[in-house]
Specification:
The chain is an alpha/beta fold. The protein has 29 helices and 10 strands. This is Potassium transporter. It comes from Capsella rubella.
């Protein structure tokens, strides 16, 4: 374990006799600088885009089928029924609908998502919060401003720069100018996230119900209630096994989906050959024009059903993290796209011959000899599609949690091999209950399809607006290209959105209600988190006051180590002053611990901790900031306390090479490798691979009360470092206490009624049912001390 540490120095003068010795120390620093630069370069190269061999790329393309394309691939189960829910009046309408499906698949999944949006990934991570993280790194649009410039030195903190007078710079300044614009951007991201959560409810419902509906085709005496019951049993089983993760059965997903695509393509070719080869003329867009020219509201509202042919694109982007973009592109262009075109064309050919079978077009178009094998494959594919959407929902909830936009819930890592495979128990059971309610409540595909389409089109609109900012700030595209992309995307998506408005009362209200509920929860939670952070910032204690108390802090310093948890990465938190003014004693060693999440997908372990000293040495006060990305997890087997002390000990060893004193500098330096430090200091940890010197900023500038001239030699510094290590170790053996703030947020008496409801009831309820910080950091209950305080907003 390694840490970034700051060598904090007090002002002092160095005699000429020791200038040679000091020179040797600075030579060592230069060597450390050079070594660290080489090591940092090596680490950065590890996160650059890798070139995969042709064989490996094909293998990854095959594997991506099961994770990325399950949802999109099962759309043929229900598209034509939702397009013509009242039957087919004119056979030519089938050609027009097929033409719309063909060009919808071409424009949105193929051109927009696979070849444009997927390239906007955050180091391989997809989803609305991944786009938001990219924007946060290129502009100061985070509502909680807790970042420091040292965070930008992370190997995973990639961003581009632009000229001050460029269009990108002007857009950046426009976004940063007003808090309302930052808030509007965050709300846009939250709306997209809530709609994807709605997809996590609707996708299993419509996919499994459609697959189970095949029972009625070959067994017509079965009632619809039996089909719904079978679907509910499958759904309960699916959600009940989520805690096992997909690591053990994930290898089955790709073969199942691959077999599904081959099957629907083969059946499609068979139906085209047997029933009507003229459906291939639908590849001409002129039939779209003729379709709408015939007029009628039904043709316009049928876009809601055609919209379902491109559902799954939001899961496609959210599940991107497991595969390189090139593998996803190959899988879509070589397998998914042509197979879907053949499947829809085959169904259209069958429907043209049998228009009265449109309600069960998929199953009725299957040749009788392969009906039951195809039913089994369809059910398995529906389960895989549902699993992909559920996994995407878990990932988005984890990302929202890291950005302070979701109540603290338990996140379980289900795989030792893959970082992204997680399980969120609370969300899993909520999804299951809502999914069963939707399935049993609607009982048919049409209303669920209307709800599903509404959620998907809103996610598409959100992605388009975020991509516009990505193209300007991240890719630095010319404004003409940005305008073309935005206008074309909005024209297509707003057309679908207008059609979905007609179906709000036919089931389209469901995702709106679900999204509104989750949006309320996420907005209120983020507002409360933001106000708590602002309270910490405004009420933090002056360093001059701390120094004025003297080494004893005006109290009895008892043996032991006190870990004071705070939201602040700089300054002394109000909780500390509240603690020492109410209790007559404090621990001999005090460490202020700040755990903060950064807008990066991960923080490497060797760059996780930053350590600095607060005040003079004899105060024995330190600060440790633990940094996490939005995909990093606090695993159950992680020993947070142990790693924290390893970082603290490393800091003291490194600091012993420099003159002691109090520190509050904004200067940063990077110094070499752990091996050099072991050779120099002679007391290192073999498990530590990299160590760097670093500092934090602090709002207050610490000025020593008395500047004293002194002479310090390297040997005396190292001796002092060893003594302090022994002192800290002794205090650690005496006991470690975790001091956490239990801050209660309440609305002011004169606050408006909606704020009182949001803070005093909604936020208070969420705080009551969410996980405590102590559980997340695996703090033993016997070592926990909560300090209560109240503030009003």
């Amino acid at each position: 374990m390694a840490a970034k540490v700051e060598a904090a120095t007090m002002g002092g003068e160095i005699d000429e006799e020791e200038s040679d010795e000091r020179g040797s120390m600075w030579d060592l620093d230069q060597k450390l600088d050079q070594s660290m630069d080489e090591e940092a370069g090596r680490l950065r190269n590890m996160y650059r885009e890798k070139k995969f061999s042709a064989l490996l790329l094909l293998q990854l393309s095959f594997q991506s089928l099961g994770v990325v394309y399950g949802d999109l691939g099962t759309s043929p189960l229900y598209v034509f029924y939702n397009t013509f829910p009242h039957g087919i009046k004119d056979p030519e309408d089938v050609i027009g609908a097929l033409s719309l499906i063909i060009y919808s698949l071409t424009l949105i999944p193929l051109l927009k998502y696979v070849f444009v949006v997927c390239k906007a990934n955050d180091n391989g991570q997809g989803g609305t919060f991944a786009l938001y993280s990219l924007l946060c790194r290129h502009a100061k649009v985070k509502t909680i401003q807790n970042q420091h410039r040292t965070d930008e030195e992370l190997t995973t903190y990639s961003r581009t720069t632009f000229h001050e007078h460029s269009f990108a710079a002007k857009t950046k300044r426009w976004l940063e100018k007003h808090t309302s614009r930052k808030t509007a951007l965050l709300i846009l991201v939250l709306v997209g996230t809530c709609m994807v959560i709605g997809d996590g409810i609707l996708t299993p419902a419509i996919s499994v119900l459609s697959a189970a509906g095949g029972l009625r085709v070959n067994l017509p005496h079965i009632s619809n209630g039996v089909v719904v019951f079978v679907a509910v049993v499958i759904l309960v089983s699916l959600f009940s096994v989520q805690h096992y993760g997909t690591d053990k059965v994930g290898w089955l997903f790709a073969p199942i989906v691959f077999l599904w695509f081959l099957s629907i393509a083969s059946i499609g070719m068979y139906n085209i050959w047997k029933h009507d080869t003229s459906v291939l003329k639908a590849f001409s867009p002129v039939y779209i024009y003729r379709y709408f020219k015939r007029g009628g509201r039904d043709r316009w509202t049928s876009l809601g059903g055609i919209m379902l042919s491109i559902t799954g694109i939001e899961a496609l982007f959210a599940d991107l993290s497991h595969f390189p973009v090139s593998a996803v592109q190959i899988a879509f262009t070589v397998i998914v796209f042509p197979c879907l075109l053949l499947a829809y064309s085959g169904q259209a050919a069958y429907i043209r011959r049998h228009p009265d079978h449109v309600a069960d077009a998929f199953y009725r178009s299957i040749p009788g000899s392969v009906y039951w094998p195809m039913f089994i494959i369809a059910t398995a594919a529906a389960i895989v599609a549902s699993q992909a959407t559920i996994s995407a929902t878990f990932s988005l909830v984890k990302q929202a949690l890291a950005h302070g936009c979701f109540p603290r819930v338990k996140v379980v890592h289900t795989s030792r091999k893959f970082l992204g495979q997680i399980y969120v128990p609370d969300i899993n059971w909520i999804l299951m209950i809502l999914c069963i309610a939707v399935t049993a409540g609607f009982k048919n595909q049409s209303q669920i399809g209307n709800a599903y389409g509404t959620a998907v089109v809103i996610v598409m609109l959100v992605t388009t607006l975020l991509m516009t900012l990505i193209m300007i700030l991240v890719w630095r595209c010319h404004w003409v290209l940005v305008l073309i992309f935005t206008i074309l995307s909005l024209v297509v998506e707003c057309t679908y959105f207008s059609a979905m408005l007609f179906k709000i009362d036919q089931g389209g209200w469901v995702p709106l209600v679900i999204a509104a509920a989750f949006l309320l929860i996420m907005s209120v939670w983020h507002y409360g988190t933001l106000k708590r952070y602002e309270f910490e910032m405004h009420s933090k204690v002056s360093m001059a006051w701390i120094i004025g108390l003297g080494p004893s802090l005006g109290l009895v310093r008892v043996p032991g180590v006190g870990l004071v948890y705070t939201e602040l990465a700089s300054g002394v938190p109000h909780i500390f002053s509240h603690f020492i003014t109410n209790l007559p004693a404090i621990h001999s060693v005090v460490v202020f611990v700040c755990v903060k999440n950064l807008p990066v997908y991960t923080v490497p372990e060797e760059e996780r901790f930053l350590v600095k000293r607060i005040g003079p040495k004899n105060f024995h006060m330190f600060r440790c900031v633990a940094r996490y990305g939005y995909r990093d997890l606090h695993k159950k087997d992680d020993d947070f306390e142990k790693r924290l002390f390893e970082s603290l000990f490393l800091y003291v060893r490194l600091e012993s090479m420099m003159e002691g004193g109090c520190s509050d500098s904004d200067e940063y330096s990077i110094c070499g490798s752990q091996q050099q430090l072991k050779d120099t200091v002679g007391n290192g940890n073999e498990n530590e691979n990299l160590a760097t010197f670093d500092t934090f900023d602090s709002v207050e500038s610490i000025t020593p009360v008395k500047r004293v001239s002194h002479t310090v030699t390297a040997s005396s510094q190292m001796s002092g470092g060893v003594d302090e290590l022994e002192f800290i170790n002794g205090c650690r053996d005496a006991g470690v206490v975790h001091i956490m703030g239990n801050t209660v947020v309440r609305a002011r008496r004169e606050a408006r009624f909606y704020k009182k409801i949001a803070i005093d009831y909604v936020y208070a309820f969420l705080r009551k049912i969410c996980r405590e910080h102590s559980a997340i950091y695996n703090v033993p209950q016997e070592s926990l001390l909560n300090v209560g305080q109240i503030f009003y907003v």
